[in-house]
C-alpha cells in the first residue's frame, strides 16, 4: 500500500470486503463476541484491526473493552503485538505482555489501562495477502492453553475464508458488469454509430442537391448536429472502455469467462497474491495479451482445458496462458500476438514461450515490470 491521501481502488475494495464480513450482525462478529463472553467480559478483550490507506492498521471492532482508548487506534506496521502479526503474517502470543521482548511497547499505557496481562493475535489472510489482524487480550495470568491457540487460529481461518468468499463474489460481479458494459458499448457502436453515419451521409447528399438557400442552411446545421451527437457517442464508448480497464482482476476474469462461454473449453483464471493498481497502458497490454493468446487456443489448438495465471513478484507482473493441447513444432506469431507483444515491449516487458519438455501442454508467458 502507498501513502496516498485517498485510498486506491484495490484498497477500497479490500476494505469493503472486510467491513461486510465484520458487520455487527454477522455470524463472525457474533462468534467473536462469544469468545469474549465465554471468558467473561471482565477477563477478556478482543479487537480486529483493518488496513488503512497509509499502510498501517486501524482498530475498528472492539469487544469487551473497559476504556475508549482502543477504538479507532492507529497502529503502524510492526508496532505492538497487532502490528507485529501484521508485518510477519503469522500467529504470535505473549504471556507476559509488559515484559515481552518480541514486540514493541508503544501502547503500554493503553494495555495497562485495559488491565491486559497476556495477548494472542492471528492474521486474516487471503492468498498470502494480510487484510487484518484478530487480537485477543486476557486480563488474567498464565500460559495460553493449546486449545485456546487452536481456537483463535480456527476463528482467524474462518474469518479469512469469509473474506475470500466476499472477494470472489465482488470479483464475479465486477467481471459480469464488465462483460455487460462491453456488450452495451458494442451495441451502441454497431447500431447507433452506424445509424448516425447513415443519417450524416444522406443529409450531405440532400444538402448538395438543395436549391433553396434556407433549406441548404438548415441541412448544414443538421449535419453539424449529427456530427456532434456522433462525437458524443464515440466519447461515451471510449469512456466506458477506459473505465473498464482499471480493474485488472475483473478484466482477466471477464476475458476468461467470455472465452469459456464462447468455446466450451474449460478455462479458469488463477490469481497468486493481490494484484497491484496498474496504469491503463499496462492493464490494456495484459488484457490484450490474454485475449489474443486465448483466441489462438481457440483457433489453432485441440485443447480441452486452458488457464490464465497472474502472479505478482517484487518487481514485475507475470501472466501465463496455458492449455493442455500439444505444443506446435514452430510458433509463428500472427498479427494479433505480434501486436500484443509490441505493446508489452513498449512497457519494458517481454513475451516468451515456456520451453519445458517435461510439461504437458503449451504455455506462453508475459512479463511486465512494475
TrEMBL record:
Domain GAF residues, every copy: 27-173
Q: Which domain of life is it from?
A: Bacteria
Record carries keyword Kinase:
yes
Give the UniProt entry's GO cellular component terms.
Answer: membrane
Alphabetical list of SUPFAM superfamilies matching this protein: ATPase domain of HSP90 chaperone/DNA topoisomerase II/histidine kinase, GAF domain-like
Keywords of this entry: Kinase, Transferase, Two-component regulatory system
Q: What is this protein called?
A: Signal transduction histidine kinase
Q: Organism, per UniProt?
A: Actinomadura luteofluorescens
